[in-house]
Write a structure and sequence with these properties.
single chain; 135 residues; alpha/beta; Chitinase A, domain 3; 5-stranded mixed beta sheet; 3 helices; 7 strands; Regulator of nucleoside diphosphate kinase; DNA binding; kinase; GreA/GreB_C_sf; Tscrpt_elong_fac_GreA/B_C
Length: 135
């Protein structure tokens, strides 16, 4: 198993995700994993976020290494899921895996067939680097 890479969260994202978890009374697959990721994260003010870190509302290019399948998705809060194929919720396994990673990082995540490894290839949009510090 890969060692988990360090993750970095903005203080705004952390506050919003924790508030959502407090309001979400129903269990969802990965809740414990998401809470563990929040607990181990380094936290920075949004204006200090490096541009190569996956934050909320970032658009991320990533690859599932076992299959070679590349995808581009925007990491969003659950309420922003609209059924389109271009977003992933931070409550979904791949969303939990991507949150806080840096370009080049790899992490294992659960899949229907066991564990798969996700690699962050690029961030094509990050709100903090675009000056959107309070989105």
């Amino acid at each position: 198993m890969l060692q988990k890479p360090a993750i970095t969260l903005s203080s705004l994202d952390l506050e919003r995700i924790e508030a959502l978890l407090d309001k979400t009374t129903t269990a969802f697959p990965g809740r414990d994993q998401l809470e563990a990721e929040l607990d181990r994260a380094d936290v920075l003010d949004p204006q200090n976020m490096p541009p190569n870190v996956v934050t909320m509302n970032s658009t991320v290019q990533f690859t599932i290494l076992e299959t070679g399948k590349a995808s581009t998705l925007t990491l969003v809060y659950p309420r922003e899921m609209d059924g389109g194929g271009d977003k992933v919720s931070v409550f979904a396994p791949v969303g939990i895996a991507l949150l806080g990673l840096t370009v080049g990082d790899e992490i294992q995540m659960p899949s229907p067939t066991g564990q798969v490894t996700v690699r962050v290839d690029a961030i094509t949009f990050q709100p903090e680097s675009a000056g959107e510090l309070h989105r």
